[in-house]
Known about the structure:
heterodimer, A: 136 residues, mainly alpha, extended, B: 255 residues, 78% helix, globular
Amino acid sequence: MVIYGVALLAACMLAGNVIGELIGIAIGVSSNVGGVGLAMLLLVFVVYRLQKAGCLDVSSRRGVEFWSSLYIPIVVAMAASQNVVGAVTGGPVALVGGLVVVAVSFALVPVIARMGKGKYAVPLDDIEDERGVRDE
Amino acid sequence: MNERLLDVFASNGLITAFAAVGLLMLVCNLVSKHLTAGRIHGSAIAIAVGLVLSYIGGVSTGGEDGLADVALFSGIGLMGGSMLRDFAIVATAFGVDVEELRKAGLNGVVALFVGIIVPFFLGGAIAYAFGYTDPVAVTTIGAGAATYIVGPITGTAIGASSDLIALSIAIGLVKSISVMIVTPMVARTISLNNPSAALVFGGMMGTTSGVAGGLAATDPRLVPYGAMTATFYTGLGCLLGPSVLYLVVRALLGG
């Protein structure tokens, strides 16, 4: 049933966020620490176990895949509800500071990405073929 | 009669949002295909248009939630709010390659620390150059250069005034919005085309909305990797900001 997949996803998100809050409380921080990331790891792990046990049928998977495929439209809605005015009218410190920080951070990405095992990272295949499948 | 018809949209906010965003994506995909010959992804255009609509919504209503402050589009706020966004982000983990996580895990952790410390001191230095020489001000603005959540939490913890906190939110907003726009443009230059680099990217940028929007516009398959590290960033930033980093700033400036 589709709802099994959706419920599994919901349970992982809630469990991840509860653990994230607990970590936050434990180290005395007033924010959630990695709740969503932990939820993702949990989902990866649970799906792996369920698939091995043969408990995840196609329709349950569809419940998760549906939400994952709604990701981009949700991000577009997120972009449409940002406080852009606040960013633009924040004054020169905010504007200069924000832009310089972003530029430097971008420049550091390849430096760190190539450390250690990252040297051997292989680019994903060209996106065009993947897109064709996705758009259907 | 007009009012009753408008009410159909306003009272079905989330459904209106689905229809409106779907229409927006359709138009943007057509623009991408026919006007840019597919060179700029439809999702990148849609995100940019979303930000412009946000600006218009903000100017016309004076609110903080962009287009979502316009009554007709209030559902956009629910659809793009943190609940559904995080739900969809978690769902993308369905396609994650565990091997890739294992390979780049350590780089991701390094990126988290560098990604918090470098923007913090850079932001602090710029604040200093603009005349904010007080350690509390430098720390709050520097923390805002991490994310617009780390800024106010750090500022509140060390007793910053509300105008400083507003400034730290503004610098964080500039960061998150420019990450959304710039990522697809520079992705090729910084080799952001594989899961390991995406993990590092998420840790380096930290802003969940910036990373989510930027990667979605670059290559949706990279989203889960970037999002996974980015979600640890704010928590780590809130831990380091008011403690270690504040103490370092105080030692440097002698406050």
